[in-house]
Every structure is written in structure tokens, then in C-alpha cells.
Queue: 2 jobs
Job 1
Amino acid sequence: MSKLYSILVSLILTISIFAQAPQQFSYQAVVRGANNELVVNKQVGMRISLLQGSNTGNAVYIETHTPISNANGLVSISIGNGAVISGAFTAIDWSKGPYFVKTETDVTGSINYTLQTTNQLLSVPYALFSANDKDDQKLTVSSTGDTLYLQNGGYVIIPGISSANPKPKPTSGYGPNITDIDGNTYKTVYIGTQQWMAENLKVSKLNDGTIIPLVVNIQPSNFTPSVWAKLSTMAYTYFNNDPINNAEYGKLYNGIVINSGKVCPTNWHVPSKNEWDKLISYLGDTLSAGWKMKETGSLHWSVLSTNKPATNTSLFTALPGGALISGATGNTNNFWGINEHATWWCSTESGDKQKFIGYLLSSYDKGLISNRFQPKTNGYSIRCIKD
């Protein structure tokens, strides 16, 4: 079977103070015959199509060539300088890519094209791009010599080498700190494909400036409804109503705050159940993820015997800030679990719209992290995730 190997798409750039557009670019390929032998020193027929949008897109330009291969089976042509079959090379709008080069070859030099390959143009030469613009563009070259910058904000890069190439998103380690509307600064961490806050939320306002009221929970007597159990509006408090707990554990928010969709810093949000589950799955499963999320040691986690295996390899640094929990009847609220349990809201509601899922990480359950629907009158911590 004959084969065609496209080995290079070379984009010709003319660098000057004001570039003039060379209406062509070079293309090279190696042609092999039926026995996988190089087709050397022989004329071959080639049909070139420029496809727009995908490797099966519409052909905006088609031309033919009859180059002669060299002693290594290499053929070299200039696309834009062949015998035109359809389209106009000068009319191609390079800003509306991506574009693909489809090459069809006849090793006998005729037009019985039996070999075919398609390659994407990974960048468009500055001169061809600017030819579609009414204004001349001035070129500047990066200090590393691998990027050409245009005065309109565009640039031409060498794929895979240029510092202008998008950097891959990390899958572990700390990310840049973020700041909320109150000026609180938080560490962030990459875990798999996600980016999380590595600290509990401490903000007292929504990100649009709306104040979240501080509501002190007064423990009722005789199981009469508490202040928090009767709330129908946003609220936050501190564990045991003591602001000293804010510095390490953050605030406890009722579920009504989640409905606002604005409690996290801009471009961040309260994670959904799917996002929580994705985190847990990446770290292993519900039986082991907790060890990789908990802060190590017993400075905050009081049950050393069960927290001792904690590694915090994810850098999530879960702290046991406790919660404000409704009683069995929903009429009472009690502060519960500091130094023993970490609790966080997620944004997924139950069918009755009165409950959100809460996630729990406990000292007593080894590495287990679990979830269940909880009344919106509970007070839980919040960890935000990047949009």
C-alpha cells in the first residue's frame, strides 16, 4: 500500500517594520510506494485542499501540483502557488480558522489520487493574517525570540515552544491566593482538574456587597424553637457564638445563604454534589479520601488515635470546625463537633427545596467522608471552588 507522510507545514514569515503578505506557504511530505519504498526522483501528482473548521470541513481553496521528489522521497511545494481548481487563496480569511491542509497524491504523476492525509495548520503566518486587515500591523519580537506580537494584540507563536502558549493547568499543589469582598485572603489548591479554596470561608457579605446578618444562636429551653431554627433569611454565626473561632475555622452559614449564588468570591462558587463527588473520587473513595484531606496531627483534630494516619497530601487541609445542627424535631439548634467534625455545604438541593446536601468528615470515622441532606437551618462551613 502506498503511503504519504506529511512531515512539515512551514509558515513563511516576512519580518520587516511593516509586513507585506506573501500569498503562499511551503509544505513538504515524504511519499512511499506500495512496498513502503521511497518514491525517489520521480514526478508525483498532488491535489491540495484547504478545509475550514475541521478535517472534514468545506474546502475554501483547491489547487494541484506536480512536484518531483528528491533522493529521500521528499516533495516540496508552495501552497498558494499551484494550479487553482477552485477558490481564491487571497480571499481566505485566516482569522476564521482553524484550517486544515488535505493532501491527495498520485505516485504516477497523474490525477488518480489514491493517497490522502489531512493536517491542521497550528498557526497562521502573520503576513497572511494581516492581509485580511485594512491596517498595516507592526511586528515586535519577544525577548526569547519565539513569539511575534502584533500591535492589535494578536501574536504568532511557535507551537509547543513559545512562552505565549497556554500553560497546562496544574493537577496538584497550591494555586494563587484569592481575596473576598471583606479583604480576607485564602490559599487555593489544585486537586485533579479542580481548584479549591484550602480554607473555610470567612466573608460577611455577598460578592455584590449585600450584608449577611450575624445572628447569635440563643439555646432555647424546653425545646422551644431557637432563633436559628426559625430563620427564613440569610445568616451566619461563629461556633459557640465566639468570634475567636473565625480565624481558624471560618464562619458557619445557614443554607439560605447558598440560594444567593453570590457568597463565594467572584468567579468562584459553592460546589455541587457532582463537584464534591469528583474530588472524592480523584482522591480514592469515600473510605480513604478523608485521610488525604485532613490536616495532619492533633493540633485541631482532638482524636489523635484515629487522625494519626492523616496525610493531607491533597493540601485541602480540612479542619474540624463543627456545625450548628437542628434537633430531631427541627426546633432546636446546638453547636456540635468542634475539634471532631468538619462540615461543609454543597449547592445541590433535595426535592422539597428545604434541604441541601452537607458533607461530613469525622475524627471517629477514620478516613470516611459522607453526605446527606440537611435542613437549611443548619449552620455549616463553606469551601468554594473555581468556576
Job 2
Amino acid sequence: MTTINYLPVLVKERGGVYSGFMSRFFTRPFYRTIIALLCCALWGSAFPALKIGYGEFQLAPDDRGGLILMAGCRFLTASLLLLAFGRVMAFGRKREERTPLGPSLWGALFLIGLTQTTFQYFFFYSGVAITPGTVASVVNSSRVFFILILAHLFFHDDRINLRKALGVILGMGGIFMANRGAGGSGFLTTGVLFILAAALSGSAGGIMVKKVSGRVSPYFLTGIQLLFGSLLLLLLTLAVPPDAPFVLTVKGVVIFFYTAFLSAVAFVLWSYLLKYNRAGEIGVYLFAIPLFGTVFSVIFLSEPFTADLVFSLLLVSAGIILVNLNSSRRKPKI
């Protein structure tokens, strides 16, 4: 019996005019900035979109099973979109040009799915349901600082220096300020703790992604880990079933597919930015995610825009910029 050892997981850009155009397009400062900000806007829009979706589906904030089911369905849809796109990109590639997948790589993809999708969005959806969208978007930016700390522990060439440490302090100060600005009952609310746990889990998965990203295409890597993670979320609903069936509305269905679509599209665009630019040149744009998330939450959810929240945004943005400052001078080693 013949075993299929190769899958269309490593797709190289065709050479010539097409490759040259893609390189020039994604490295030109104007287009690079527009695309990076578009990705941040898509990710930031997820916060109010999810909260509106909860209302349309009549999901109660304490319906843990319903929240898990919604997350599982969303990322299963996003994974299928990405895998289909990767398949199209792999069309016509020769068998010998594809990367073999061994047990260790499959195991790594499973662990990435467990941390970056299952655990992260179990906590994320639970936290967003009971936290104002403005606060959730700011607190979620802690991922940048968690990645920095974990990279210091696992990569010898990516150590924390004084500038980065100051950026972490500023950023975390902004997160705590956001919680206070929302009238949090105590130093940290339950919702904020959930979102911090989600950011930490996602950051751990990001460290594992860095370990294997050179071996498979970004489309396959993210599509498969989302597939594993979303299926685990759906299995969790067997132990924690929803309290009530979803109430389907046209608006709710549209928002659901929008959240799945934004995940797939933002990832594809961001992966191209990382392909043609240094990580530090792109990472500095991440400060815009809490800004977009806050603005969209104020507009679409009519949430208050307090002085404490403005100050927290400034602190988080300054922290992220400080962390990424001058990081483009060297390429990180994997």
C-alpha cells in the first residue's frame, strides 16, 4: 500500500514578473502601511462584532457552552477558507517541491492548535462576553508583551533589554488603567483575567509557530492549527453544552461569516507582509489594534470613551512602539 508522504504545504511564489511585482508591492512603504493598518482594523473590529453577534444569537454572557460553540464554528470556517486558499496556491506544484510531514511536525501543529486556538479562544470568548469592547481590545494587546517575555526565555538572540523592559512596563500599566477606566470592580476583573489568559496562551502558541514556520507554508500551518483547535472546541461542547439553541437572524449570520472571513483575510495579508519585510518593521503597526478596537467599540456599541481609557491607549501604544523600536536592524533567528 502506498503512503502519501507529501502534501501541498510549502508553496513558493512563481518567479519572474509576478514575484517581482509582489515584492515591490508589499515592501513599498505606502502600500505596506495601508495593508498593515487594514489588518489591524480587521482584528480590532472583531471586538464589537463578537459582542453584537452574542446579542443577535441571544447568547448569555454566562452561557459558556454557547460561547465555545460559536468560537469553534467560527474558526472551523476560517480554517476551511485558509486550507482551500492554500490548495489553490499549491495547484500545479510538483510532488518533489512539497514538504514531507512527519509525526513531530503533526504533533507541533496539534499543540499550536491547542494553545493558539482552543485555550486562547475558550478564555477570549468568555472574557469578551463580560468585558466592555473598549477594555477588551486594550487588554488583548498584552499579547505583544507576553511574546516578548517568552522569546527572552526560549530564544538566546531575542533578549529583553532596558528599552524593551520599559515598553512592557508602560504597556501593562496601560492595561491596568483600561480596567480601572471601565469601572472594574477591583484591581482585575474576571473578564480581564480571562483575556490575559487568552493572550498568554496565544503567545505560547506563537513561540511554537516560530519554531516550525520555516518548514511549512503559513496557509497550511494556520489552517491546520485552526482546524485542530476548532474541532477541540467543538468537542468541549459535549462536556459543556449550550444552555439554549442559537437564535439565527440574518444580521447574526452575516456577522458570524464576517468574523471568520476577517480572521482568514487578515492572516493572509499579514503573512505576505512578513514574507517581504522584517518582522520589526511590521510589528510596530500592532499598536493600532487596540486603537481600532476601542474606536469601533465606541461607535458600534456606544461605549463610553473615558479619560482613563485614552490614557491607557497612549500607554499601550507607547509600550508597543518602544518594544519594536529599531528591531528591524536585525533579523531574528528561528
